User: What shape does this take?
Amino acid sequence: MRIRYTIPFKRKIIFDDHWEIPMQGGKLRIIEENGYAKALELLFEKQPLEYAPHFQHSNQAGVVATITKRDHRMVSVKRQLDKATTFLKCFYDIELITDEIDAKYEGETPAP
Assistant: This one.
């Protein structure tokens, strides 16, 4: 399974130059829109299925099921990005909205 985290910037900014950076066993890149950086994307491949949200049937009246999230990576990703943002603020006027991380869990076809 592939996990893709998207972390928005508080406001769009311009980066003169940027490239993919290895981070925590994943790949960090900047997402641009019309020449402005709007978010960071952190991609992890070959992750265990246990990290994906799970569908659980419920026995409670009026509740058919619940979706539970067990992404053990999310806490460390948020912590690492908060620390990186604190460092970058010393040099640049940037701010990430780490409370609004969008996580996507995508199936991967195993290599033969």
